[in-house]
Amino acid sequence: MYQKFFGLRESPFNVNPDPRYLFLTRQIQEALAALTYGIQNRKGFILLTGEVGTGKTTLLNRLLGWLRGQRVATAYIFNSRLSVNDLFDLMLAEFEIQCESREKSQIVLRLNQWLLDRYRAGETAVLIIDEAQNLSPDVLEEIRLLTNLETSTEKLLQIVLTGQPELEEKLKSPQLRQLRQRITLRCRTAPLTLEETFGYVTERLRIAGANCEPIFSKEAIEMVHTYSCGIPRVVNLLCEHSMINAYVDSVRPVPAHLVEEVAREFQLDEIAPVAGAGFTAAGQAANTQSLLENLDELLGRLRQMGAAAARERKS
Ligand SMILES: Nc1ncnc2c1ncn2[C@@H]1O[C@H](COP(=O)(O)OP(=O)(O)OP(=O)(O)O)[C@@H](O)[C@H]1O
Ligand SMILES: [Mg+2]
Known about the structure:
Blueprint (H helix, E strand, L loop, with lengths): L1 H4 L20 H15 L4 E6 L5 H14 L3 E5 L6 H12 L8 H17 L4 E5 L7 H10 L10 E7 L2 H6 L5 H5 L3 E5 L4 H14 L10 H11 L3 H18 L6 H10 L15 H34 L1
Parallel strand pairs: 1-4, 1-5, 2-3, 3-4
Helix pairs in contact: 9-10, 10-11, 10-12, 11-12
């Protein structure tokens, strides 16, 4: 409905991590480069962290697409409440390794043999674990042991461990120091700057089929940035709902006041309202300061929304 009104082929602001929509900020480019470099050069253990909703899973999906294109064997695990047995079962299933035994020692042996076969054939294998901030210490310890699968010169299994910043905190605990020491590369995702928010919105609209006619006014995008603190998931939420409201009101481009209404509807105005501080140097500085102060609260709320959605999915 509203897509047609704006001349689009599809919905530009879906909240699923569709890699076609990946917008390459400098930070995302660096992360992608670190991930591909680390895997190609068998660096073994890479850590990707970033705040909730800043594009980690979308980035991993892009990486997965690239790896599959290169015919690299991959296992993608995103159930962070898994047990040690689940970890091994999922790895075997994802890598399509046959193993008669249910004994962990036998499974590791079989895995090692399979990895060596691949190594001899000049191939590698990649284990990607998303949402790792909730993994139990037992599972993290098993992941550490997996980094021991190596020849005298190279790691046989490349591991990408991904999670929210709590993961970094977790890895600082003395119990996990051995795991931390094995991390060879680290990369991050981060909230968008104002300039990046403009680029992000424009790029998503372009991919969804927008022509040159503006869909959002400049002030509306500034407002989106203010209320979202540059977090892409919130940018999507604000843009999607503002476009629906603009369609209902038959207005184009989407004006700033409609973004503000949506922000109020989602109670974002209680946490990030410095809209209109202007874009003088002083106004910009005040905005940045306020965004940083409000980010924690917005992230807390996003996490609650995520947890509630997960509970709903389970029930
Ligand atoms: N760089 C980006 N380019 C395009 N879309 C993005 C980007 N970053 C985030 N998004 C969009 O924002 C939403 C949230 O992204 P994603 O799920 O990847 O975040 P996340 O960091 O994995 O979040 P969580 O910590 O909750 O797992 C998705 O709709 C995604 O497509
Ligand atoms: Mg994610």
